[in-house]
Amino acid sequence: MFETYLRRDSLFAEKGALSDEFRPQALLHREREQKMLANVLLPALRGDKPSNLFIYGKTGTGKTIGTRFVCSEMESFAREKRLPLKVVYVNAQLKKVADTEYRLISTLASHFGVTLPATGLPTGKIYKAFSSALDTQKSLVLIVIDEIDNVVRKCGNELLYNLMRINSELKSSRVSIIGITNDLNLLKQVDSRVRSSLSEEELVFAPYDATQLSDILEARSSVAFQPGVIDQSVIPKCAAYAAREHGDARRALNLLRMAGEVAERSGAPRIDATHVDMAVEKLDTETAVEFVKNQPLQSKAVLYTIIALKETHPDFTTGDIYTKYKAVCPLFGQKCLTQRRVSDLINELASTGILSADVVSKGRYGRSKTIDLLVNNQTLVKISATLRAEVVAAY
Ligand SMILES: Nc1ncnc2c1ncn2[C@@H]1O[C@H](COP(=O)(O)OP(=O)(O)O)[C@@H](O)[C@H]1O
Ligand SMILES: [Mg+2]
Q1: Distance separating alpha carbons of residues 299 and 394, to the nearest angstrom
Q2: How far is residue 242's CA from residue 230's CA, in Å, rounded to a whole number?
Q3: What are the DSSP calls for 166-218, one per residue?
């Protein structure tokens, strides 16, 4: 088996070209966004502080790559012309970067060569250390905070508020903040003081359409695959699927990679449309499982209840759900909610499309809900396993 595997040529030339870490040579179909970004940041080249910028858009619309692209071009230009400009990029989704206010500020400070102890200093001290590190730069500093919603969630408003005001502590440097997020409602959740400074300028990244996704995939596939191994239906099919979801380039790239893996595993010499179909199924399963993992424990308990009832009593009523739920709830280490709240949770799950809950009339027995799970069997098996693991973990 190992021999045959090694002797067979891989369909991939450089699989990494389909991953998130890959930095492509060029950015496609983001001219408007790049121009707008550059326009906001241009004053930095003359030593003037650019407005803070708030960038948002759905996941996979090129926010991270687009921002990094423009910032790094600007930085190299500045280096060439010996202009004092420095760009710092942090991803707040990473635990070790932005778990706490302390961590984030010390991470930022570390970009200026200042190492702070991992814990222990009072907050005032780390801000002081950070601002003096900034000041010794004698430079314009652009701080890019990607996935900035994590900062708000974990550290509250105070950190951003302090960061926005840090210029008042500086004599020789100036700082602008670029915040990036997928969370379209973030601005509504922050303090009005933070909101107005963070969003001095705003930039929206729109979803890609199928043609644009095709172009992005085409460019990437020429690096990722051996020549001639992709059937011409493959890329348009991946692009159409990702465009229907929400124009997400990451999803399109994942799908193409998975189609390649499916084909390779089955020993096919080329990737064709049937491999894309199989990859879609796998990706849908992964997405559904991921979704379930991220649900609050009470919703998990409700879903667990419904799945268990489907197996044993396919004709269950809303009353049955509540009875069973009361037995399941302790397994998730939770206190039971009222029947009314459980009914709300069922409706919430229904609104996400994982199940349907339709009210039907039962004649003289009144009205009841019929509940159907809207995922295929393979997905259901995986979801069940995920929920069962959770029950075990609660003990
Ligand atoms: N315009 C583009 N040209 C080339 N690759 C792109 C483009 N937009 C997105 N990508 C790729 O799609 C993936 C997701 O993009 P990313 O910038 O991380 O999205 P976001 O930050 O908006 O979630 C990355 O692998 C990125 O390289
Ligand atoms: Mg991103």
Answers
A1: 15
A2: 18
A3: GGGG-SS-EEEEEEEES-TTHHHHS-HHHHHHHTSEEEEEPPP-HHHHHHHHH
DSSP-derived letter for residue 271 is B
Q: How far is the CA of 61 from the centre of ligand 1 (A)?
A: 6
Q: Which of 169-178, 270-279, 363-372 has the lowest mean pLDDT?
A: 363-372
| pTM for the full predicted model | 0.85
Q: How crowded is the C-beta side of 383, counted as CA atoms within 13 Å?
A: 28
Domains of the chain: 31-205 (3.40.50.300), 208-292 (1.10.8.60), 295-394 (1.10.10.10)
- Distance separating alpha carbons of residues 76 and 382, to the nearest angstrom: 48
Name the β-bridge partners of 203: 55
Q: How far is CA 232 from CA 4, 235, 376, in A?
A: 28, 7, 29
Residues touching ligand 1 (Cβ under 6 Å) are: 20, 24, 27-30, 57, 59-65, 205, 216, 249-250, 253
**Cα dihedral 321, 323, 328, 330 sign:** positive
43 Cα: distance to centroid of ligand 2 (angstroms): 25
The Cα 62–Cα 204 span in angstroms is 11
Cβ 147 vs Cβ 93: under 8 Å: yes
Q: What is the pLDDT of residues 47-93, one digit of tens each?
A: 899 999 999 999 999 999 999 999 999 999 999 999 999 999 999 99
pLDDT band at 154 (very low <50, low <70, confident <90, very high): confident
Half-sphere exposure of 325 (CA within 13 A, CB side): 26
